[in-house]
Structure formats: C-alpha cells, structure tokens
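Q: For a teaching session next week I want to show students how multiple molecules come together into a single three-dimensional assembly. I've collected the sequence lines for a complex. Could you give me the predicted structure tokens for the whole thing so I can convert them for display?
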Amino acid sequence: MSILVIAEHDNTSIRPSTLNTIAAAKLLGDDIHLFVATNNSELPNSASTIESISKVISSVDDTLEHQLPEALAPMIKEVATSYSHVLAPATTFGKNLMPRASALLDSQQISDISGVIDQDTFKRPIYAGSCIATVKSNDSIKLITVRATAFDPVQLSGGSAAVESFDSVVSNDKSEFVSEEIAKSDRPELTAADVIISGGRGMQSGDNFHLLETIADKLGAAVGASRAAVDAGFVPNDYQVGQTGKIVAPNLYIAVGISGAIQHLAGMKDSKVIVAINKDEDAPIFQVSDYGLVADLFNALPELADKI
Amino acid sequence: MKILVPIKRVVDYNVKVRPLSDNSNVDLNNVKMAVNPFCEIAVEEAVRLKESGTATEIIAVTVGTPASQEQLRTALALGCDRAILIESEENPEPLVIAKALAKIFEEENPDLIILGKQAIDGDNNQTGQMLSAILDLPQATFASKLVIEGQTANVTREIDGGLQTIKVNLPAIVTTDLRLNEPRYASLPNIMKAKKKELATKNINDLGIDTSARTEIISVELPPQREAGIKVESVDELVDKLKNEAKAI
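A: Of course. Below is the structure for the complete assembly, covering every listed component.
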C-alpha cells in the first residue's frame, strides 16, 4: 500500500515541515503521494519536484485558501481509503486537521511520532517528553502526525512526480476565516533556524531582549523564549520554545536566564549544541548544556555580542 | 446558553513521571493527580461566560475511573453547576472519549463545548477535533480569545507564527490554549458548596459505542539522557569552544 502525506503550505510554497514528514513516510514505504489542497494552481506543479514522492494529488479551488479542517478533513477521508498510512506534520496545521480526519475514518490517530519501528509501531514522547512510548496501532488506515525535528528533511528538488487532480471539493458552511496576524521578522523562523538564542525570566523585561537580538543578528539566529518569559509578558507567545510552544532542534541553542524547567527542556533538548548562561550555578539547564557559563547575563551578553 | 466542559484527571504537572521498572507503562503509583491544566482554562472560560450573563448553565463531564470524581468536584468548586462521570477503564483512547462525549452532547444539547487542547499525560491533542468530526460541528482549536456573538463565536487561535481569527456557527467545539485566561483557585466556601452539587454517574458500556482499544503500548522508556558538558570560566572561553571545538559558530 502507498503512503499519503498531507502538504502544509501557505499557498505560495511548501513548508519545510512537509519535507520532514515525507522523510518519516520513507521509513514506511516507497510509494509516497503528496496531497496538496490550495487555491493556487501553480503549487501542485512546483511540489512535484520534491524528492522521493511519486505522485501529487492536487485539489485546487478558491475555497481552499485557508484550508479549514471542516472542508479538508472530509476530503482526506475520501482520498485516504487507498492508503495504509496518512501523515501530516505535528504543527498547528496538522494538529488541527488530522484528528478530525482520523475520527471520520474511525481510526485512532498516533500523534507526534519521533520514530518509526515498523509499519504498525511508532515511538512518541509522552508527559512533555519525560518518557518515550512505543505504541502499536491496529487500525487498517493509520493517521499519524510527525514531529518534524525528529526526521531529516528530504530535498525540495530532484523529484519528478506525476500530478493528478482530485476534484471533489467539500463545501463548508460551518466556519469561516476572518483574519490572520503573522508575526513579521527579518530573522529566521524558530522551527527552521540553524541557531536559536532564547531568554527566560532572568531577562527581567521585554526591553532587555534587545541584548539577545543583537547577538541573533550577528549569528543569523532566531530569538526564542521560555514559557516563564512569555507568561511574564516579556515577549509574545509565538516566541515560546517548549512542550506547549515550539519544538526545536537547531545546531546551536543558547539559553540565557532560563532555569531549565522540564517544560522548556522538552522543546529544545534535541538541539545539537546547547549553551547555557545563568547566574545560578545549580540551575537544571546546566545538566543538559554542553557549555555552561555561570555569569550575570547583563555583563555576559554585551561581551558575547562584541566577541562573536 | 448551555456549556459542556469535558475535563480530564491527569498526573499533576509538577510531577516528573518515570517508567515502571518493567517498562510496561508509566509509574503512576502514589503520584499526585490533578485537573489537566488546559481543562482548568476551559472551566474558567465557561465560568466567565456565565458571570458575564452569556451562559446560564455549565456541565462538567469526564470519562474515567471513579477516582475522577475528585476532579469533577474541583470543577464544581470552580463554578460548574453539575457534573457527569462516565465510568470507564483506565486511560481510554481519545477516539473512545470523543464517542462517549458525543453521546452526552446528544442528551444535553449544549450550545458550546469548551475543552483543553491536550491532556498533559498522553499529549495527544485529539479529543476536541474528533468530537467535532463525530458531531459534524465546527471546531476552533488552540483558542486564545473567545467572543460569543449571537449564534456565532469569533475565536482567535494560536497558530505557528502568529494568530488566526475564525468565525464558527454554534454549537461549536472550542479547545483552549494557554493564553485564553488565567484560571482562578477554588475558595473554601465554594469547595464546601461543591460537595452538594449534582454528580451523575453513567457507565461507558451503556452508551452504545465501540469502546475497543485500537492501539497498544509496547513499552515506555526514559528518553536518551543528555550528558552534562563543561562549565566555561569566561565569555572568551565560550566563544573559543564554540568556534574551535563545537564548530557551531
């Protein structure tokens, strides 16, 4: 049986999380199809060059601009019947959509997998990553969301998939899109960044985040925050790294004034190199960091900005 | 307006959970239990809608073992009017919970269902969306703002990279994100009063739904532990290590 991947995109380009999801699909089978529901008739063609997929199933309609789950889930239900597995990224897009499709198919979804053991068996973090469960699914069609950071992405180019259209668009009179506020930044997105510098409660105020931004600009890094810093109102919630925020795994993660609550560690402990700067030498963050600097961040950050 | 608030009994968020010694599951012996934090936010939002005169009745419901009565009493102390316990085995799967909740929806006909976006035990993030699918109702997940306007709700949702606002027809299912509100604590007089509020019990096997488990837990393990590295003495040493040892900058 073939594997279906649901593409996450912004109607202009395919999001990187889709490429990680295809990488997970490759561990399940060779015949991978990509479902692209969009209002842009060019997008399915440009998606057809993604490595490792054999077919793009394209549904193009003006009503699909915002991909609301009330419309999309019934379409997935219809397409899914010829597949053994249906995968989507465990982003807010996939988390919103997939359980709805799963219930329509009477299948118990497996959420946020971080590993594939075999066709039926998967690893996934539970209890905010305190434990890893190995779970076996007995459903005939398995719906799965994929933790993007756990799988190295496939390439956007190099493939030449056939494009097939799927025309049965479902009308949705239950919900409608009103507006969207996407934070604009010249810095990379947290989930796609190679380097991240994050601040915690120790930053003391939102204004002090400029100390992190100076360093971020030098390193081409994204700026993140702990939940404590978000809850204190220093920065908006889309900065949040942690179990209830974004899960990241950059090459370099610099945690500044972050004590290292389980909640935060769950979101960043798969980073390749971790640096912690904290004045409390007993802070739990030092137990997971490769390089720890016990220092007052208000002295250390300007010096670091000068020397990198 | 009548609001149904499904809640869940979970391990207290301060507890560090470990696997059992045979790795068959997590060790929940003598562990402190509590209302799932996202469910507390759901209860709070419903109570605020009642306080503002929008809602008239709030019903808390849970699917779980008889021990879950404790969490229903907490919900009653926080301001829910009555509660329903659907007795089941331990840890039913989200699809089973959604099917059971759908039956309660059919009996109670609420105008709004508010529940947590995920429970902090399994971290599945499924029940609300599944319930919406089964009932063929609109869903507004990961809500950070909820405004009721007549027969519709305007909901601002936390999405990757920002916020999205959608409008859903009622009845609808709303799942809560962290920033929707800050839940209150139950006062002692309200805890006393909650003991007298109605708590009905049903058995999940009497609801006429398929309760069979579709998945099995093969094992539960600790994640690979990260070794603590070294402490550096100065910013100079840190920059040197990052450049020449880790080659990270």
